Queue: 4 jobs
Job 1
Amino acid sequence: MTEPSAHFLLAAAALSAAAALLHIACIAGGPDWYRALGAGEPMARMAASGSWYPAIVTAAISAVLLVWAAYALAGAGVLPRLPWMRVILCAITAVYVVRGLAFVPIMILMPGRSLVFWGWSSAICTGIGIVHVLGLRQAWASL
């Protein structure tokens, strides 16, 4: 049963699941999707050449995002309680917020993607991080 104070965690779960599905769609869509979603030309070229590397990396990211969605659903009371729920939900939140706000250092460490990609992906991660922060605050007592 959903906790009455868990609306933001439900939204956080939906956002992580949507991000996971977008990554899966990228695998299915192939090189053009890798390019359009900003994965970088090297990933698009590898996908075009039939390399499994882009699909494996993208599937791993999708799996992580689905686990994060499951933790948010558990925090909202939709799924059974998961191990270390408070700690892991705080860590997930931190990853989203740090990824969103630290786009300049990440951009330097991971060249080859456009400024548009870094701007949009950072804004999206910051937004999802804020939803997680609000969800943690809202549901903290029940976690």
Job 2
Amino acid sequence: MRTKLFAPLALAGALLAAPLVQAASLTLYSGRGESLVQPIIDRFQQETGIEVNVRYGGTAQLAVLLQEEGRRTPADVYWGQDAGAMGAVSRANLLAQLPANIYEDLPGIYKSVTGNWVATSGRARVFAYSTTRTTAADHPQSIFDLTDERFRGRVGWAPGNGSFQSFVTAMRVVHGEDRTLEWLQAMRDNGTKVFRNNTVQLPAIADGEIDYALVNNYYLPRITANDANFPVNQGFFAEGDIGNLMNVAGVAVTRHGRNQEQAQQFVRFLISQEAQEYFATEGNEFPVIQGVTQNPLAISYDRALQVSPDIDLDQLDDLEGTLALLRRAGLI
């Protein structure tokens, strides 16, 4: 069981003291969306002269691709959007050991116990809701409440999304296979509407298609930054509910990559002050180092920490088991 030490710590000077490397190129497999991460990749290229060739795709898709490619992979860096995918690739022995001074001063939840990946940001699972068609008295206290008749046809989810799949893995860890499958099937039978990703669920609430959605905390502030009257808000289930899972995006150097030094430099850059400010203010995610200004429109970090379930993120590595369960439930 992990200790709930999630507050960002000071980043030691050695963490940023990356050795100078000759300008070259590296290949990045990114499970993070292009619109969010390409600007910070561009900044890395500008500052280092290292060209980054990016292959974008789903986090799970790229994890599977790395396993299929093995020693033949062109990837130097793998950037996944959840701890489960990072753990799956690590378990397949496809990640290089990182220098200790990259991760040694980060709290435990922000790094792998094996030392081969580190978090680039944190995020929380929430439920989004209509501010015009729901009241506080209507809101679910547990994610298991959403199978009730009163929520029939009113809830949205994205079973193909990597963060959702990592949440399902967490439910399997905490509540077991049978109860998780029962919940998935009950949600399906209760008319839960399937969306291709998290982003489109929020406009669906505003348009009246659904009243609730299961998403991550950072999508809504991206909308309300431009529309303060957007009729959607978000909240948490009761304290400790698995629906409040706190997860992380992570980055690693691949074991068989040909540009190890450049790849390590990229990892260091992603946990630098500049990159962390970007993730916090533009992505509305939680930073992994101290002293980073957060977006005032973002959900309260302290509240997210208070209500998060106590679970070891290193246990979320059975992606294949989760995908198999989702197939059994007829969701992917």
Job 3
Amino acid sequence: MDDDNSRTLDFKEFLKGLNDYAMMIDKEEAEEIFRIFDKDGSGTIDFDEFLVTLRPPMSNARKEIIMQAFRKLDKTGDGVITIEDLRGLYNAKHHPKYQNGDWTEDQVFRAFLDNFDLPYDKDGKVTTEEFMNYYAGVSASIDTDVYFIIMMKNAWKL
């Protein structure tokens, strides 16, 4: 569908793609669907927006284990994970870039937080929504709740 290889879809490409795949809908309905995919309202759909819209919903069991991990990381309990929350929970001194002197401890923490931050909003603060969104992506590739819960418990020592 990405005819110009921009790694995004504008509405024209989206409409052509729907047509190419024999999705016969009127322009107004296509515009409505496009807006659902275009999460940031930029007028284009990037690959992450495309995947986020297509992934299946998570069960309550998965959401609860994700929130347990979030609460463990959010030491201050203010609903946001920051560098300060990570001190004492995440040992940056074992990170290779810290060991070779490329990064400070705070840079290691920031890189860790950036994994969970939205790609277009890396502010060093991870909200429950961002954390949940990250794990919704992970969840989409794991078939059973049991396996997902075991993975989360092992990863976060819950």
Job 4
Amino acid sequence: MMSVSMGSKKLNTCCVASMNCLPDEFIVQILSLLPTKQAASTSVFSKRWRTLFAFWHDLDFDDSIFWHPEEGKQDRDDIQESFRSFVDRTLALQGGAPINKFSLKCGNEHDDEPDNVHIDRWISNALELGVSELLLCLSSVTRHHFPSNVFSSTTLVKLTLGTKLSIYSFPSDTSLPALKVLFLDSIWCDIEEFSGVFLAGFPALEDLTIQHNDSFPGMTGVISSKTIKRLSISYNYADYVEFCSIYALDTPNVVDLYYSCYARPWYSHCNLDSLAKATLDLRMLEGEGVIDTDVTELINGIHNVKTLHLTSSSVEVISVCCKGGLPVFENLVDLVFLGNIGQGWKVLLPLLLENSPNLKTLVLSALDHWTYRYCFVGIRITPKNQVKMLSIMQYEGSAKELKQISHFLLKMECLEVLKVYAAAVINDSKKIQLTEDLLKLPRASSKLKIQVM
């Protein structure tokens, strides 16, 4: 399509001439497929193309394009000035035309450097143009303040802030009435400011994601919102878990929860009454952390869930650290249970089957890699279970797996479908043999159908 990299000048001229025959909106659509820097560089081909930035709806600025891949190049003054000039020129070409998305990724800046004046001006410019999606990835910046209109925009629908930013306070009149999606990547701020001022200013917020990497401490405290429907929390910071993670969720309208974190010593309360789907990826601290860890309140908080996905590490944590006992999961219909490490599954799976009277679908994975030989053989499966579909992932067809599946088929009288998903190494001829072996297994249900995928 574009002739920038072609060797023939004549061919370049032909391609540009051909494109110049297209309507403006077509050219804009074609150039919008390129990163902003590459799209802007095409303006050298035609003066007409320079004016097309008035139709540009998505702007993406990333300073790494200017210094990658040379190490240390980003510290050179001429490289930084080149990036600043490029952003200034591009925004000037935009004129007063509205934009939908403004993405700014840049690093190696500090609060006491005048370069932040440029960043603030760019952000304010985008907000004045009515941007609906704002992504600010200001790496290695300790920022105490943003332009005030970041927290008072009436057009922002999606806001992303990161990374490794410390925000000590928010404007008392914070108000983003149209904001629906908020993504925070390694942000530290006072939790009272966060819930009491920041979140309180988003009356339409539906989707909140908070993540922290392993070298930056997170917020601690309560996430409180009556409007959030999807909540994702990922903390990979193992140090000072008690002081750098969320201990309470006051989010009564959340229907979809993803929670990945080192298990805390305690949880205050979890108001998740509307929860329909939850994925837990709990991890155990090394050493003696298990002695003081208790996830009872968190597990009680998700008792209304309909679909529950437990990672292998979560199975181990819950089996050991849910010291108040499991609640009854009255609404649980679908359970994905990945427990191929440790011995926690031996305790937790029978309890979940017993405490989930309406469970209909059970998914297990990689039976050949579970810790103990024939691990499920003899495990208690309540005769009252209502499981109708059993799915086995990453099936390799070993005698160990076959014997374990047989145990389930004999104990699940309501079972209607057994779905076995063969591992990637299994070819079609092997699948035929696996199917024949599975069909020979005795079963308690006369309605059972076996499918090998």
